[in-house]
Specification:
Chains A, B: It comes from Stappia albiluteola. Two copies of one chain form a homodimer. The first copy, chain A, has helices at residues 3-11, 23-36, 52-61, 70-77, 95-103, 114-123, 155-164, 186-202, 227-242, 255-258; strands spanning 18-21, 40-45, 64-67, 86-88, 108-111, 128-132, 140-142, 168-173, 178-180, 209-211, 248-251, 262-272, 281-285, 305-306, 314-320, 329-339, 347-351, 372-375. By secondary structure, chain A is of the alpha/beta class. In chain A, helix 2 (23-36) runs parallel beside helix 3, helix 6 (114-123) packs parallel to helix 7 and helix 8 runs parallel beside helix 9.
């Protein structure tokens, strides 16, 4: 909660829940990444929050951008940043979207299989491709599935095909899992990357780049290491595995760049008990899984929540959203402690909501509007 | 897949996934409910699919409407249907939304606790309220949480308070769980409702109505009983518990009304394997959890999928969506059998997608558009 956000909310007249993002915090975060990993290029993961004001600021600061779709590429280009600052980082692309990105000037593409390489060779000839490898994601609060990446032993064949088809076999990428609390989580993947560099060199192909992905955490309720600790650990691992021939490196912070810059203001709609002997209150907010808080899925992300009554005694509550959908429950397995004096109509402030809230909103589920967003 | 939908898709020129809803099927479903439960009023659950064409048709056929929000109430009124055909069925309502609904003419409201009764007494004086009770949801493919409803033994106090505050204590509601495969699932809740009717009568208050909710299934991969079987079982239970003094009854089909009326056409974006010895292919579509198929969450709803190559041999596939989000995987725990000849660029048809697809779409997650929708 920054003073600028507090001031903004004091003056806001519109009704309904909203997220407010403070650009000063985004700026600080960008500098923290740039300083902690001075030889690494920052590619902001646009999907975390594509608000134009955020993209404009980051473009101005010199950031590059990791895009998941043609629409995101167009949003980045609208800032005036050149296409040379864009990576089309989605490993799953329609061939006509690859062609469109190429037409827009994009020359850096992610792949994780031979079929994707073939599409790029046909529709974005001569481009650079990096191959994403699987990574176990241990230590992450939002561990990734096997959806992206191939087994490391498959990567050389994928990259060799790229080379054979006239593309630049450019490097390796991986992702250690979102909201990664272990600063050493990058080590084993960097080891795999170095082995692939070695293997490719033996085939006569020099890889150049390691894309170390995202995973940098926002601070929710649990304490997390700061960006400098990640920078140091990653640099140690890079030198351990690559010696004094360090590759070009990229990181793709999304949550780590904007997560702590945003705050959601919501309202208590109802407080009730399910039966007379129920010790847990049900607290219903005007925001839930379908209009901003999708990342409470499986209670993975546990947001800090502030009220005006936090000095009062607290008791456990189930926290739920406003829709008629029974899965629209935020915290139930581990109830949330809220003040006994909390009342219907009270405002609550949900911290660290700058990432993965606005675009995750449903268009109109149950007739509720998507989350209103202000960037200040 | 109806002939009308087939014809529509043959002529469609736009790119990207879409859902097509055939109004003839909705009409048939409405008649099936109306005929199978002739003395029960049908309140269509607008949240299942609020497309204006669907609301217009149902209004014309004489349906009433279960609304989750003021926006849904306004959509129903836009059809020309009177407010006397609307139930504000969400138990979680802001008091200013109750006031707005009252202003629009709505006089029927759901409650499940005393605090909600107090809001309605203040902002919708004299209205009818029904109290939702908890129900175990056994037998449902999408069982409901404890989010809505109170313990049956609390209901008389809630309704007595309504009566004391000048509201009409009108009845009881419950929901047996969405996609309910057991036609007898209504029996025990109807027993609870009858007991509450009896208890209230002893307090000198005559309840009038039982709202038997939704839960009527769409046919996905698993066979389900037809509407007549539900009608017969429900009628048996009603007479068992209420004898010859049957209450006024309501049902709220949503999925059962529109689920099988809609079909999604999607495209195969990529097919790959994660490693050389992987027997399971990964098939990525241009539709996933965030642009229409949210109900694949926990693989709860298993949609039938058709391809042009279904006569070929089939092998297990993990099915995933197009976003860079690792949870955007549709079927993995139980892989989906798809033809070995399936290729990138092929169209697939996903059946029974008329309910809970369009409005569940995210506004723009990863830059992907919400699901395009056509009602024919």
């Amino acid at each position: 909660m920054t003073e600028r956000i507090r001031e903004f909310l004091r003056n806001r007249r519109e009704d309904g829940p909203c997220v407010v993002v403070d650009l000063d915090v985004v700026r600080d975060n960008y500098h923290a990444f740039a300083h902690s990993l001075p030889d690494t290029r920052v590619f902001y993961a646009v999907k975390a929050n594509p608000a134009p004001e955020i993209l404009n600021l980051l473009a101005e600061l010199g950031s590059s951008f990791d895009c998941a779709s043609v629409a995101e590429i167009e949003m980045v280009l609208a800032t005036g940043a050149g296409a040379d600052r864009i990576s089309f980082g989605n490993t799953i692309k329609k061939e006509r979207d690859i062609a469109r990105a190429f037409e827009l000037g994009v020359r850096l593409f992610a792949v994780d299989c031979e079929a994707e390489v073939e599409k790029i060779a046909r529709s974005a000839p001569g481009s650079r491709v990096f191959c994403r490898i699987l990574c176990d994601g241990a230590g992450a609060d939002w561990p990734l599935s096997r959806k992206f990446g191939c087994a490391p032993e498959m990567a050389p064949r994928v990259l060799e095909l790229a080379h054979r088809l006239g593309l630049a076999a450019y490097g390796i990428s991986f992702h250690v899992g979102s909201q990664q609390g272990n600063v050493d989580a990058w080590d084993s993947a960097l080891g795999s990357a170095a082995a692939i560099f070695h293997d490719m060199a033996e085939r006569g192909i020099q890889l150049s780049m390691v894309n170390m992905g995202g995973g940098f955490p926002a601070k929710y309720l649990k304490e997390m290491p700061g960006v400098p600790a990640y920078g140091e650990a990653i640099f140690r691992s890079l030198t351990r595995h690559f010696g004094n021939r360090l590759p070009e490196t990229i990181i793709e912070p999304g949550r780590g760049m904007v997560g702590n810059a945003g705050l959601i203001e919501a309202e208590v709609v109802l407080i009730s008990r399910k039966s007379d002997d129920d010790e847990v209150r049900w607290v219903y907010l005007d925001i839930g899984k379908f209009n901003g808080l999708a990342e409470t899925m499986d209670e993975a992300i546990r947001y800090p929540i502030l009220t005006d009554k936090d000095s009062d005694r607290k008791t456990p509550c189930v926290l739920a959203g406003p829709t008629c959908d029974s899965v629209d429950v935020l915290y139930e397995k581990t109830p949330y402690e809220l003040p006994v004096s909390l009342a219907i109509g009270d405002k609550v402030l949900i911290e660290a909501c700058g990432a993965y809230t606005t675009t995750y909103s449903s268009v109109a589920f149950n007739g509720f509007s998507p989350l209103a967003s202000y960037v200040i």
